[in-house]
Amino acid sequence: MVATQREEGAVEAEAACEELREALRGSGVTLPSLAPDPAPESSLVRVSLVDLGRCSPATARALAGAVRAGAGARKASGVR
Q1: How distant is the alpha carbon of residue 9 from its chain centre?
Q2: b/e for 42-73, b at 16 or more Cβ within 10 A?
Q3: Residue 29 burial (CB < 10 Å; 0-12/13-18/19+)?
Q4: Is 20 exposed, middle or buried (0-12, 13-18, 19+ CB in 10 A)?
Q5: What is the CA radius of gyration of the chain?
Q6: Arithmetic mean of pLDDT, 10-34
Q7: What is the tens place of the pLDDT at every residue in 29-78?
Q8: What is the structure's pLDDT at 80?
Q9: Which domain holds residue 45?
């Protein structure tokens, strides 16, 4: 059976969630509501999304620190 564009999007969103979850775990950050958000059947848009969800202020600050650290490492290595 050939996968539909919607099914492929759902698989991609799930994979992206896992990749982000692992990367955040390595930085000591957990987004408790991180989950794939598949496109609804009734939607004209066939793109699945990643729902980052809600988190505490402490988690938001930890996430900001992890992003800043990553940005700093990219700048130091010359990667844009």
Answers
A1: 14
A2: eeeeeebebeeeebeeeeeebbeebeeeeeee
A3: buried
A4: middle
A5: 16
A6: 93
A7: 999 999 999 877 766 666 788 999 999 999 999 999 999 998 877 667 77
A8: 62
A9: 5-77
Structural domain count, the chain: 1
DSSP 78: T
d(CA 12, CA 37): 11
Query: DSSP secondary structure string, 28-77?
Result: T---TT-EEEPPPTT-S----EEE-----HHHHHHHHHHHHHHHHHHHHH
> Tokens 């940005």 sit at which residue?
71
